[in-house]
Amino acid sequence: MMVEGFVLRAGLAGLALVLAAGPLGCFVVWRRMAYFGDATAHAAILGVALALAFDLSLYAGTLAVALAMAATVSTLAGRGWAMDTTLGVLAHSALAFGLVAVSFLPGVRVDLAAYLFGDILAVRWSDLAAIAAGTGGVAALIAWRWSALLTATLSEDLAHAAGIAPARERMALTVALAVVVAVAIKVVGALLIAAMLIVPAAAARAFARSPEAMAAAAVAIGAAAVAAGLAASLALDTPAGPSIVAAAALLFALSVALQPLLGRG
Amino acid sequence: MNLLAAEGLTVRLGAATVLAGVDFRIAPGEIVTIVGPNGSGKSTLLRALLGILRPIAGRVLRRAGLRIGYVPQRLAIDPGLPLTVARFLSLPRRQPAGRIAAALARSGIAGLGGRQMAGLSGGQFQRALLARALLETPELLVLDEPTQGLDQPGQADFYRLVEDLRRDLGCAVLMVSHDLHVVMAASDRVVCLNGHVCCEGTPSVVAAAPAYRALFGTGTGGALALYRHVHDHRHDHARDGDGDRHHHAGEA
Lengths: 265, 252
Hints:
The structure holds 2 protein chains of 2 kinds. Helix content of chain A is 80%, strand content 0%. By secondary structure, chain A is an all-alpha fold.
């Protein structure tokens, strides 16, 4: 069977994304940062508007805004703000301002749906290079900091007493999140990035007895979701990004159903 | 020579000055307990001594190369994080299996290395934290309210274990507690804290001190005697004392 070039590129882009989103998503789950991911991802739309307005690279624009949002949220969290409401306000306002800003762009016809839900089938080789560089960097960062990140996730005081600076580890995760958001916007879009972080990680919990196993299982489940979602998208002519997330959600449901059998490690 | 000392320590959290001009010292092999009402700055003092918080005035003196084993006050492990006891002990540094097994045995939870942290009882969980603190053969063991959430026999058992560890390992122990009646008798020295050091000395001196009685009332003196009785006989009469229970309910 011949694999069309665009399908190959889409598959590779999806795999590159889950390589970073799997382990990073585990930390998002363990540290209860789900809304944090939302806020950062939604801010990316504002980044798209900036990139288009100032003729910057899409990745540079989204990365800059996602970093600014992630750093803001991280700082507020560090000051002990009640995060639930604050994050809700930030996430939705960032999205709204982003959409308003895009509408102001003169003479540009912007396909908003492509940025909200991604257009993985339109990924070019140059995009693939940017995505792979970003997610490869994030995966390497997480592998490098793994023990320190885990310790800081358990308890910042414990980390401190062991000679680890929790603020530095928090910063590493913040940067990783912004990079993943920036490169994932072409793949699954601003609205569905958080799903690719959380859903495979949540599904992986049922199969894992160690943090490392959970991260690996999250990558495997994410990869399966990419494959199944793309196949469904081609066969049924459904939008690719949402199909991938829907496949991940089905895998999550399956893991919940299997949980009693697996005896939840 | 002190293992750890502080001079004129003043710590501010936000706008509030939580500690003002606190002097502190602990010598090798000593068991020192910091007591004080809620909000008196007990945990803040520990965290400043450990270098987690930076004082705005005063200084902390630590003997060069001091090995500290730290048991934090709370550790909420998200149920979404699969973590065995043995893996927990290997954070952040990998530890040989033999050393992990020895630390678990020493903490009274031998053989639990393969269990998930989330599946442990309160007492087992505290012992797992203690085992982790013991891994690097500490010269100073620092425990922040180590028996929170344990019932009274569980508390008495835990403090007995700490005394055994001090005897066997020769380490100094620094504890924060408001389980006054149980913990004070196990201490060489008690520091009564309320933003500043109200009084300090042997448990009986502190229990009789006017500043201490002003903070905690007089009921504790009897409870202290009761604990000594329990402790000497290694029986479990701790639940008998009515005044004792009252006191604990008031503190919790």
